Fold this sequence. Notes:
Layout: E1 2-3, H1 9-13, H2 24-28, E2 37-38, E3 44-45, H3 55-58, H4 68-74, E4 85-86, H5 93-101, E5 104-110, H6 119-132, E6 138-145, H7 152-164, H8 178-182, H9 190-193, H10 198-214
Parallel strand pairs: 1-4, 5-6
Antiparallel strand pairs: 2-3
Family: Belongs to the ParA family.
Protein name: Sporulation initiation inhibitor protein Soj
Domain AAA: 1-139
Amino acid sequence: xxxxxxxxNLTESLGFSxxxxxxxxxxxxxxxxxxxxxxxxxxxxxxxxxxxxxxETELINEAGRELILAHLIKGQKEKFDYILIDCPPSLSxxxxxxxxxxxxxxxxxxxxxxAMRGMAKLMQVVHKVQxxxxxxxxxxxxxxxQYDGRKNLNKSVSELVxxxxxxxxxxxxxxxxxxxxxxxxxxQDIFHYAPKSAGAEDYEGxxxxxxxxxx
Length: 215
């Protein structure tokens, strides 16, 4: 997993410090190769740090800056079954790097109308990346999160997403779950923290759908 978010939430949620000596930040600047840290159960992590938020400004004059991550992971693809990239919640240079380096895109959408506002812009960027930088990029699916089937608002958003992305929406919706909020505070994933929770059940369902789509 590659933490490409300057908030370093993934890094800290897995129990790593956001102040490690080598992170994705230095690798993006060309100071060293991808720093890969072993976690557990066959999971490896490329951590982030708070300094990563400044990398866009620091690389503004760098030629081919949108291809940096693609070059970094090129030599790593054969070593792993899957490489997951956690993106920042904005259409930045970091997000562009992730889109350029990826084969498939998972789009998480909170079950709220405001969360839909940025979708049109995101799809414009995705289409441009497909045309100009990465023709292999495809949408694996749209993932609806923070869902409560008892709320009409959540149901309406789900229906709108289904209409907008026909055939590209995961049938599994990730429900609201206290365990999902608690797990990162313990430096654990949901499967270790609360394996019988609704959150674990939902994400297992998403994984199964994704594996079916890939195969």
